[in-house]
What we know:
- By secondary structure, this protein is α/β, with parallel strands linked by helices.
- The chain has one domain (2-207): TIM Barrel (Alpha-Beta Barrel).
- The chain has seven helices and eight strands.
- Strands 1-2-3-4-5-6-7-8 form an eight-stranded parallel β-barrel.
- Helix 5 (148-162) links the parallel strand 6 and strand 7 (167-171).
- The radius of gyration is 16 Å and the shape is globular.
- The mean pLDDT is 95.
Amino acid sequence: MKIAVSFLTSYYSKEKTIELITKTNADxxxxxxxxxxxxxxxxxxxxxEGLLENVSKPLDIHLMCFDPIIYIKKLSIxxxxxxxxxxxxxxxxxxxxxxxxxxxxxxxxxLKPNTEVNEIKPYLALVDLVLVMxxxxxxGGQEFQEMSIKKIKExxxxxxxxxxxxxxxxxxxxxxxxxxxxxxxxxxxxxxxxCKSNNYxxxxxxxx
Length: 208
């Protein structure tokens, strides 16, 4: 299992938090981008390009934004490994997938807690990653919702039965206890458990 660390909720500035994550053996920096419409919080005014342009770790970008296509080209200069968007955020899902792939970036689709796996099933052969939200998107520090475990198992079964290649990622309320409930995932996103601590590496070691 790989670990992606989100800098959304931290004791430190975003610059300092990113620096501290970079010094650990985390596999990705997870970048949450919110438009204030798809979710209540907004941070699209942040200069993500400036914050992340010199980061050495792979970037895993999660767009919690309507019309994700308008953000993709600008973010592509960061050369992220993944850009993930939500099914409900666009009327043209296939076009959004194609736009991301045309830029040489792997594409992910996210499932909110009330979105069923069946709703994205037609697109599973087209994507590289499925992000299972184990909390409501848009705010850090929420408790892990166990209903996400069923979705993870369902996605794993579909992948095996159909010889598909997408990675399974979980995001929300991940800590040293809840990580044991999601052993089937390929990537776990962790936020406040790491970034609201005094020792980022120790917290990641606890998860790995």
